[in-house]
Write a structure and sequence with these properties.
Its EC number is 7.1.1.9. InterPro entries: Cyt_c/ubiquinol_Oxase_su3, Cyt_c_oxidase-like_su3, Cyt_c_oxidase_su3-like_sf, Cyt_c_oxidase_su3_a-hlx. The protein is mainly α. The protein contains 6 helices and no strands. α1 runs parallel beside α5 and α1 packs antiparallel against α6.
């Protein structure tokens, strides 16, 4: 389990503490609380890490002095577009889950968050299939500079997607353990912040890796 997974699970645990659940009604979750602010600060730190990965990619590309990506690498652009659509769709389902949480509809929250977790899992499976295809054609993490930056940047992002899927599962499980509370609704909102961040970062990676060649 990576550090981002542990932090997300800690956040979803923290919002279960009644002392941290300032709102008394689910419908009053419009005012930011300390958990939400802390999540935004955490995401800002993660953004800096990804900025470093983007910088590494562009520096490597500038210093390559030749074809980019180099032979024998052949990126499956249509496949990448398909899994991108799947991941972006999960942002919409996650947001609909937030709307359900804000109105106290735990059954709709479960449906939307379960679907979001499923879409995230499908995305990861699609990315794993692409990895297998690239390795089969000779592109490995240690075989070239391009292979290194490709697998590091996309792999780091995949770890964040996995953390988000696990966070969805934690939120879902807790809705079955006790009566739905404002604290649980806040946890759902916090997880959605993280998930939207992961989706936006992937769009940037997708454009950078598959179109700026």
């Amino acid at each position: 389990m990576g550090p981002e997974t542990a932090i997300l699970l800690d956040v979803t645990s923290a919002v279960e503490n009644p002392g941290m659940a300032a709102p008394q009604r689910v419908a009053t979750l419009n005012r930011p609380n300390m958990v939400s602010v802390g999540t935004i600060v955490f995401l800002s730190q993660e953004l800096m890490f990804f900025a470093g990965l983007f910088a590494m990619y562009f520096v490597s590309k500038a210093n390559s002095g030749g074809e980019w990506p180099p032979h024998p690498t052949h990126l499956n652009v249509p496949w990448a577009a398909l899994i991108t659509v799947i991941l972006v769709s999960s942002s919409f389902t996650a947001q609909w889950g937030v709307f359900a949480a804000e109105r106290g509809d735990v059954f709709a929250l479960r449906r939307w968050y379960a679907l979001s977790a499923l879409l995230g899992t499908v995305f990861l499976a699609g990315q794993a299939w692409e990895y297998i295809e690239l390795v089969g054609h000779g592109t490995t993490i240690g075989g070239s500079v391009y292979g290194s930056v490709f697998f590091i940047t996309t792999g780091f992002h995949a770890a964040h997607v996995l953390a988000g899927v696990l966070a969805f599962v934690v939120v879902l499980l807790r809705t079955f353990k006790s009566k739905f509370t404002p604290a649980q609704a806040t946890a759902a909102v916090v997880v959605s912040y993280y998930w939207h961040f992961v989706d936006v970062v992937w769009i940037g990676l997708w454009i950078t890796i598959y179109f700026i060649q």
